[in-house]
């Protein structure tokens, strides 16, 4: 019914467009694409198309099945309103990230497009929102693509299935699949959205041969999944990875590397929710199921199924089997400050801390304590998980892409401002997004307010310029701004702290320590290295299983 209403409303839009060039919201352009006739809204130099369905509603018997492309619209589709968000829990009240969508639905597979009004073969950026694969929404004001479009990019933001509805694996789901696999439905949605872009984006002024896939946090994890997924090969040509975490992924039928088998998790969730089997799971209302699965402890991940994700991400990147595309990747100095649940326990004393580290890290203890000294136990408890999760990942990604001969650029966001500083949130997780999007005034309600100063605007202009330049030609270069050198061979990076500043060799020794810890733990089957670190680490195996 929602889509029928949009189509009927589209007829009115066409009549208005033919008789009057503008209305209160701006001009009403209608484009013809392989997907059909689509009416948007032009304000100033940007045309916006909202809530375009790229796949059929994944409901009823289509729940937990690969997305089905939509048929072309028979009449004009009015792309004037964002579609509903995919079903998700309500955020914790008062969280700086809290920006709950007005409506949620299983019928949520839509995308939005911001295009320069005169676009022709413009670079395309496809944005994948974060939210732990559990929450988030393509229509959040933080992701408004107006400023990027004004700078010459066609920005596409997408919804994808979340939580238990997007990532559940189950033996009965695998049995009914022609390929014998299950899980990864949210990832399949992202791939289908990229296919839709390839078929249709030229009609919006975008170049299907110049697509950058970009994301932050779980969106950045999704970008890594896409880089590893054979089905996504050729659907994008560059990658922007903001605050990603390269961590182990459950395997479909095998308990390995600290995870239960994904199918076993699905069977447990069926029992825990009282559904018992697949038919019972499909009979549950989506919101009820999502809430019950969260209560039962379900956490969504991609699944190594041998088909969509052939093996662990680290193994894929080690073998050089990931997509050979240029990459821009980085992390923030205060990633853990806004996610204190990831912070390590703080020992009672420096002596207790050092004793614990030496017991666990053996021949690596001196280097660990050099990087995370006992002189500031709180900072050590924040910095170590930041580096193990985000710093190591960003550095590894640029290293691995450079090894393929691709352009690779590293950044470090270390910016502070009074409202963030007052909350001890310097460089917090996701803090770079409003700067890169040019959306300093469009942050969530409890986000530390960014000052309206020339300095803040200049930082935003610089970051947005680098992001747009990279999307355009794979090189972040802005006239009049400092040169951003590739990571290799000199370990160069760009520091964003007040103003862009080129630097090299970020946190010397940090990457090598966490790479060595990862390799040693993996050799022992303990792949949850990024969680079990510092005073929470097991005894790290001795040398002999270091990285090649």
TrEMBL record:
Keywords: Hydrolase, Signal. Residues 1-24 form the signal peptide. Pfam families: COesterase. SUPFAM superfamilies: alpha/beta-Hydrolases. Residues 29-496 form the Carboxylesterase type B domain. PROSITE patterns: CARBOXYLESTERASE_B_1, CARBOXYLESTERASE_B_2, PROKAR_LIPOPROTEIN. Its EC number is 3.1.1.-. One of its GO terms (molecular function) is hydrolase activity. InterPro entries: AB_hydrolase_fold (IPR029058), CarbesteraseB (IPR002018), Carboxylesterase_B_AS (IPR019826), Carboxylesterase_B_CS (IPR019819), Type-B_Carboxylest/Lipase (IPR050309). Belongs to the type-B carboxylesterase/lipase family. This is Carboxylic ester hydrolase. It comes from Hyphomonas polymorpha PS728.
């Amino acid at each position: 019914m929602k889509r029928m209403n949009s189509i009927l409303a589209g007829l009115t839009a066409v009549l208005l467009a033919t008789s009057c060039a503008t209305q209160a919201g701006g001009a009403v352009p209608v484009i013809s694409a392989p997907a059909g006739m689509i009416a948007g809204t032009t304000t100033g130099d940007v045309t916006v198309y909202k809530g375009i369905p790229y796949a059929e509603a994944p409901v009823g018997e289509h729940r937990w099945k690969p997305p089905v492309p939509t048929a072309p619209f028979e009449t004009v589709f009015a792309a004037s309103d964002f579609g509903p968000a995919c079903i998700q829990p309500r955020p914790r009240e008062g969280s700086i990230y809290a920006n709950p969508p007005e409506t949620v639905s299983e019928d949520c597979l839509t995308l939005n497009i911001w295009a320069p009004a005169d676009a022709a073969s413009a670079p395309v950026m496809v944005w994948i929102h974060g939210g732990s694969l559990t929450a988030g929404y393509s229509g959040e004001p933080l992701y408004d693509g107006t400023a990027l479009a004004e700078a010459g990019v066609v920005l596409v933001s997408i919804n994808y299935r979340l939580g238990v509805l997007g990532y559940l694996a189950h033996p009965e789901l695998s049995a009914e699949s022609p390929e014998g696999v299950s899980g990864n439905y949210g990832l399949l949605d992202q791939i289908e959205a990229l296919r839709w872009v390839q078929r249709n984006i030229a009609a919006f002024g975008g170049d299907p041969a110049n697509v950058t896939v970009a994301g932050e946090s779980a969106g950045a994890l999704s970008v890594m999944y896409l880089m590893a997924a054979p089905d996504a090969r050729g659907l994008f040509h560059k990658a922007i990875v903001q605050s990603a975490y390269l961590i182990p992924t459950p395997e479909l039928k095998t308990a390995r590397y600290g995870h239960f088998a994904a199918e076993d998790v699905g069977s447990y969730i069926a029992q825990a929710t009282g559904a018992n089997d697949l038919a019972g799971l499909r009979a549950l209302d989506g919101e009820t199921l999502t809430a019950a699965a969260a209560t039962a402890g379900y956490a969504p991940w991609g699944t190594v199924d041998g088909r969509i994700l052939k093996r662990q991400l680290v193994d894929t990147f080690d073998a050089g089997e990931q997509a050979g595309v240029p990459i821009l990747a980085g992390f923030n100095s205060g990633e853990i400050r806004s996610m204190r649940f990831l912070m390590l326990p703080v020992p009672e004393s420096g002596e207790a801390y050092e004793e614990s580290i030496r017991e666990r890290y053996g021949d690596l203890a001196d280097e660990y304590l050099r990087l995370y000294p006992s002189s500031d136990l709180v900072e050590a408890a924040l910095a170590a998980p930041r580096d193990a999760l985000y710093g190591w990942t960003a550095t590894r990604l640029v290293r691995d892409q450079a090894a393929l001969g691709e352009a690779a650029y590293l950044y470090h966001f270390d910016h502070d401002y009074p409202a963030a500083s007052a909350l001890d949130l310097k460089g917090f997780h996701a803090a770079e997004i409003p700067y890169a999007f040019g959306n300093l005034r469009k942050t969530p309600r409890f986000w530390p307010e960014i000052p309206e100063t020339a300095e803040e605007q200049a930082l935003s202009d610089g970051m947005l310029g680098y992001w747009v330049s990279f999307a355009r030609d794979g090189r972040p270069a802005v006239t009049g701004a400092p040169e951003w050198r590739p990571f290799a061979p000199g370990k160069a990076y760009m520091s964003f702290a007040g103003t862009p500043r080129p630097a090299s060799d970020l946190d010397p020794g940090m990457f090598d320590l966490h790479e060595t810890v990862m390799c040693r733990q993996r050799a022992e089957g303990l792949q949850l290295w990024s969680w079990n670190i510092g005073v929470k680490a097991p005894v790290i195996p001795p040398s002999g299983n270091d990285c090649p």
